[in-house]
Design a protein that fits this description.
Elements lengths: L1 E2 L15 H6 L8 E3 L26 H10 L1 E3 L2 E13 L2 E10 L10 E6 L4 E10 L5 E9 L4 E5 L7 E2 L3 E2 L9 E11 L8 E8 L2 E9 L1 E9 L5 E6 L7 E9 L1
Antiparallel strand pairs: 1-11, 2-15, 3-4, 4-5, 5-6, 7-8, 9-17, 10-16, 12-15, 12-17, 13-14, 13-16
């Protein structure tokens, strides 16, 4: 991927949206477009799944280990243990929330403690959907990915026009050839880390609307026939009651 803009100007005026065109290119159920994360209940607008009280599906991850090494301590002969209860991205850092899970009879077991995991140089923080915690509920998680694979931009509160990524092209596609690209977009609340739906997500090629999805927070689709000379933008528009959201996206050439 090669960015066309020399820099991403967040101060650029918000452009109006042609909803007639977005409806015309609304993604059909053709097998190339799919929403994500319903099975995880990761969207604040989706029906949440009941807690798994037996924790059968709980899997420890790096964020749990970070909580343990940062905050565990000995008290009256007992080992006080901590676990992860969610994380959010902050630039290239992962802000991890931790709380005590054993022993259960502590005075303030629900106190939240904060630690960070910093992505290595060349990597960016990616906000992911919810995962099952040790308590049986679902909280957002994060991980680090190569910076060149991810693009992020903010859709501000009450920003009703479109907000797009920097313009980019796929210079690695051979001249005169075309290739299919799988795009993945997801929008999340910068305060809670939870995925939240946008009014629209869509792809523009050479300034034209080519594919859209409505009322969605996590969307994957494939677009074929992309040339190295095509100029692409991935865009989103907020609902009227959205908080400040961040929209992130990745594209993978097949």
């Amino acid at each position: 991927m090669k960015f066309i803009d020399s820099d991403f100007e967040t101060s650029l005026p918000v452009q109006s949206v042609d909803e007639t065109e977005l409806l015309r290119v609304l993604a059909q159920n053709d097998g190339t477009s799919k929403p994500g994360c319903e099975s995880l209940g990761c969207d604040g607008n989706n029906v949440q799944l009941p807690p798994d009280l037996n924790h059968r599906d709980y899997v420890e991850i790096e964020e749990d280990a970070k909580c343990r090494t940062q905050f565990d301590f000995e008290s009256l002969g007992d080992r006080v243990k901590h676990t992860n209860v969610g994380s959010v991205c902050a630039d290239t850092s992962r802000v991890v929330s931790c709380r005590i899970y054993t022993p259960q009879d502590l005075v303030n077991p629900k106190e939240i403690k904060i630690t960070t995991l910093t992505c290595l140089p060349g990597y960016a923080c990616r906000q992911d959907g919810a995962r099952l915690t040790r308590f049986g509920d679902r909280k957002p998680t994060t991980h680090c990915v190569l910076n060149r694979e991810i693009s992020s931009w903010v859709i501000q509160r009450r920003q009703f026009g479109e907000k797009c990524s920097r313009k980019f092209s796929y210079s690695e596609i051979e001249e005169g050839q075309t290739a299919p690209v799988e795009f993945h977009l997801w929008s999340w609340n910068t305060a809670s880390g939870l995925f939240e739906q946008l009014k629209w997500m869509y792809l523009k090629i050479n300034g034209a609307y080519v594919r859209s999805a409505s009322g969605i927070s996590d969307w994957t689709f494939t677009w074929s026939g992309i040339k190295s000379s095509d100029i692409l933008e991935l865009c989103g528009t907020a609902k009227d009651n959205n908080p400040e959201l961040e929209l992130q996206a990745q594209g993978t050439i097949f």
